[in-house]
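Ticket #4471: complex job returned nothing on first submit. Input attached below:
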Amino acid sequence: MSFIFDFLTGDKKLKPLPAKKKDELPHVQLGISFKEWQEQSPNKHKWRNIRWSFLIFINLLFIASFHLGWGVLEGSLSGSRLLGIYLMDPFNSAQELVISSKTGFISHLTTNFWIGFFVILTFYWLLGGRAFCSWVCPYHFFAEMGERVHDYILKKRKIREKTYDITVKYVFWIGLLIVAFLTQQLVFEDLNPVGILSRAMIYGPGLALIWVVLLLAYEIFGIKRFWCRYVCPIGVTYSFVGDLSPMSVKFDLDKCAHCRDCQDVCLVPHELWFVKKGAATREVHFTGGDCTKCGLCIDVCYSGALSFGLKDWTTNRWGYKMAKKMWTGNKQNG
Amino acid sequence: MANQTGKTNRRQFLKATATAVVSLAVVGSAAYYLRDKSSVQKTGILRPPGSVDEKDFLYACIKCGLCVQICPVSAIKLADWDSYLSYGTPYIDVNQQACDFSCDAIQCAETCPTAAINFQIFRHAGNEAVAPLYKKYPDGFPPEINPFEVQILAMRRVADMGVAKITDQEICLAYHGKGYEGPLGDHHALLRPPGSKERIDIAETHVKREICDLCVVYCPLGSEAIELKEIGEGRFLPEVKDGCVGCGVCQMLCPTNPKAIVIEPKEKLV
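Support reply: We reran it on our side without changes. The output follows.
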């Protein structure tokens, strides 16, 4: 969801553009049927392969930095040091801040803590927030595999996918901070499959992996991507910065055939709301903060309507509009 | 096609929220209940040097493991589920590998981003110790005084991990006037003996003592922490003094089984 972005730009108030007529669709213009057009397009897995390689590379780098003493990327995903620069898990840091402001421990937090906290937020602001999820998070990797099994089971049993309200993740985000405050514990870190998996890979497996296996089993046999979609507060924290990120998935209404295959492969299909026929409010759209920038939609798109792009000033004028809005005190619509 | 807006109606949202709130309450109460069980008092694990009070440690530690990675002798390990919510937090198993302070600068504390292992106390103690020296010798130090050594000794003194205790004097070899000959340890572990610059592997070091005093001669803090006391007729017993910080070198080297000298972690949970 991109409520911060929408609030700042006023995009929410825009009315949808008139729906495309049939002869404007790309396959009709080529004079072939949709099925033929679909088959013509090469079955590519470009971004998926790049992403999986990168995810495995990063996690191997963590392992090698410890076991081979490379010292490039030390620590684990809860907190690490990349070439001497600290990086902190933002939700861990948020919990830490909430608790230590109550107990007075906040004055003990080191400069490296503050550097790590701000560096990671800036880094993922630039690279699109939840890019962490699909490009780094090891749990995502296993959950993505689990998702395939889940889809297969549903197809076999002919069960319809059930979805829940994703807004509940904000309830978890706030709730976990409150629970941390009340119990004076990093409650989320006790349940965090990202940290558990990361530590298990780097420092050796432990009993805590049972929890991760249970979670995965629930995602396969129960609710699809239960943890990532509805609970994980790390993703929510990154989605706040991702919402304002210049980096995003760009959508060209011109090239779209409204087949919505991209929404079927997407982990967060509500971010691709504009691919529905007659839903787009602009010629060019960008996905919001929940988008993990995994590139699956870009791989599946037959016409190249979706691509990685920068929300730049000339096409969307988002920076200009945002600045103008702040300047005039949210009065104008742009 | 499934619902792809991510939003449902109000009723659905309230249902999901109710589930979330209930599960959060369960998790929160479980965490609160397990909190006391997770403290070092109950689990009996030894924290790295300079760890803050346990009531703060349990939330200050984000379980990143940077301290594990920086320790040159690999003394620090991460706890598992058997220590309840302390799992993933660092501890030292002194039987396997004790903290011998051979990194000099207490690097685990220096690397900790959340000050769960607090470097400030070491910095403060170190600076406090050398400040008068710099005042006394403004034009450079005479060769017999090494400010660096003064500084690291002062830092060791405030490590405060626990305290050594004689479990049963009947087990102690020195108590019976016996000596010890053999390898310094029965497994591979690293140790930098006091005054030496090199680390040794305790399994490959052969020692011979007339009266077993391994816990005394290898103590990183020396005679201010432990001394061998004669109790008559050629029988001795190590005496732990106030200077002991609980690094665990004595326990690691004690040749008896069970150990005659063990570290008791400082109990701090209020």
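Residues 171 and 231 of chain A are 9 Å apart (CA to CA). Closing as resolved unless it happens again.
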